[in-house]
Amino acid sequence: MQLSVIIVNYNVKFLLEKCLISLQSACRNISAEIFVVDNDSSDGSRTYFDGKFTDVQFSWNTYNMGFGKANNSVLHQAKGEYVLFLNPDTMVPEDCLEKCLSFFSQHSDCGALGVRMIDGKGVFLNESKRGFPGISASFFKMFGLQRLFPRSRFFARYYLGHLPENETHTVKVLAGAFMMLSRAALQRVKGFDEDFFMYGEDIDLSCRIVQSGFKNYFYPEAYIVHYKGESTQKKSREYVNHFYGAMQIFVRKYYSKHLIKKSFLLAAIEFQKRMALCIRLF
Q1: The domain 3-129+165-229 is classified under which CATH number: 3.40.50.300, 1.20.1440.230, 3.90.550.10, 3.40.50.2020?
Q2: Which residues are bridge partners to 158 per DSSP?
Q3: Could you read off the pLDDT of 29-41 as tens digits, one per residue?
Q4: Is the N end or the C end of the chain the one with fewer CB atoms within 10 Å?
Q5: How far apart are CA 93 and CA 278, in angstroms?
Q6: Residue 206 contacts by C-beta under 8 Å, 6 or more apart in sequence?
Q7: Predicted TM-score (pTM) of this structure
């Protein structure tokens, strides 16, 4: 088995259907298996997919266990030499997966691979390639300096704005919307950290892959369309709590030995969280 694809679904049944159709075409010339884990969707996903996509292995959770834990729940079943974590609100071109597998075969140091992501209008998504969210990079992002200087090596280091988006690069962080990992890398990192319920788990996984001795590659010769954020309401209190809560977990995990940096980042995150909640109210 060359490839195992794992998708976590939550209330996006129509987008998931389009994603699966595109996946079937993309897997036509490779040996692959597809898993869908549903996190207790309330949009009738289970009924909707009854009898459809009989080659897809569906799992139906009775509660929302979060993104990382849902992926991990079927990871032990995956038989592929490579494993792709894929969002349901994506569409995969026919040649995307074959290109990615070919890249892995030519780069033995590649632990994880991300591709060029564009939105529904064809606009490049900056989160396709990211740097480590260090104290200065996080500060510049949170307080808007990155937007003012989007190509700066200094101010735009969070999204690596100085690196051309059409060239292959090694990067620190890839996006969880499309992360293809080698079996060797997975054996070292053991999947997602389940302390992250939603958001931040892809940053953490990317960092652990690098720490384990592998490299993360941004590979723009392959691309996907990502209709980002369709399964979340970004103005909801739940979204705000999960998003900023994930940032706080990350800071506590990676800055435990740097008390001043940790305190500064936690204070900045709390400020941003309160601002987001205020904006939501008004």
Answers
A1: 3.90.550.10
A2: none
A3: 999 999 999 999 9
A4: C
A5: 40
A6: 112, 130, 172, 173, 174, 179, 216
A7: 0.90
